[in-house]
Amino acid sequence: MSVDVTDLRAFYASPLGSVACRMVGRSVDRFWGPLVGLRVLGLGYAVPYVTAVRPECERALAFMPANQGVVNWPSTGASASALVDPLMMPLPDSSIDRVLVVHALETVESPSELLYEVWRILTPGGRMIVVAPNRRGVWARLDTTPFGQGQPFSRSQLKALMRQTQFSPEGWAEILYVPPLRSRFLLQTASAWERIGVGFNLPFAGLHIVEATKQLYRAVT
After folding, report:
1. CA–CA dist 139, 179 (Å, integer)
2. Closest to 192 in 3D by CA, of 202, 177, 203
3. What's the predicted TM-score (pTM) here?
4. Which of 20, 60, 71, 157 could cross-link 54 (Cys pair, CB 3.0–4.6 Å)?
């Protein structure tokens, strides 16, 4: 079940949403680095993230699933957002260099079909980042945030899904150790929670972040 776009906008406008955006954004920057001259697509509800990288890209687009709803983006100039069927996106083959999938994989009926479609539009060697709720984490267990909706994943499930859809995982991160509560104290100490969780490799991170590369040929197993 998709989250309504109005609720997604409200979440990211909140202090808790700002913390989540900052943590995810750091991982995206670390995995992708400079995006100068590249074509970037945010699939799901990725507006908070593609906004940050838009100035350096050749082109940045934001595609939002039809059952979620769409917002006009960016707020000025020509619109670069669209309401789409995420399993049949209106883009030619091999037309996008980078795809960020957030608030999408956990809400579609067939995650593998979504990733096959991402594979189709990526250029050879193109790279994808998937942000997905961790089934062992607290964020997936509480429906007070968008990450508590839909189907959470384990790391092994994501690995299997990548292999099935001809992606090669290149980088992994587990983030959001702070509980998803709107406590001012917790939000102020979010960075400390993150350092402790990452430092001790604790199992209850809120999100998996996986960077993967498009494979042109199926790996032999």
Report:
1. 7
2. 177
3. 0.95
4. 60
Beta strands in the chain (DSSP E): 39-44, 59-65, 81-84, 96-102, 122-133, 167-175, 207-214
In whole angstroms, give the CA distance from residue 168 to residue 192: 32
| Euclidean distance between CA atoms 97 and 126, whole angstroms | 5
Give the containing element (helix H, strand E) for 143. Answer: none
Phi first, then psi: give them for residue 164, nearest 5 degrees: -60, -35
Which of 125, 100, 101, 97 is CA-nearest to residue 214? Answer: 125
Q: Judge contact between 194 and 186, C-beta under 8 A.
A: no
CB 174 within 8 A of CB 207: yes
Per DSSP bridges, beta strands 59-65 and 39-44 are: parallel
Query: Which residues does 61 contact at the CB level (< 8 Å), separation at least 6?
Result: 39, 40, 41, 42, 50, 80, 81, 82, 96
Model confidence pLDDT, tens digit, residues 175-185: 999 999 999 99
- CA-CA distance, 105 to 100, in Å (whole number)? 11
Task: Provide the 3-class DSSP secondary structure of residue 42.
Answer: strand
What are the tens digits of pLDDT across the range 162-205? 999 999 999 999 999 999 999 999 999 999 999 999 998 898 99
With contact defined as beta carbons under 8 Å apart, do 154 and 195 qualify? Answer: no
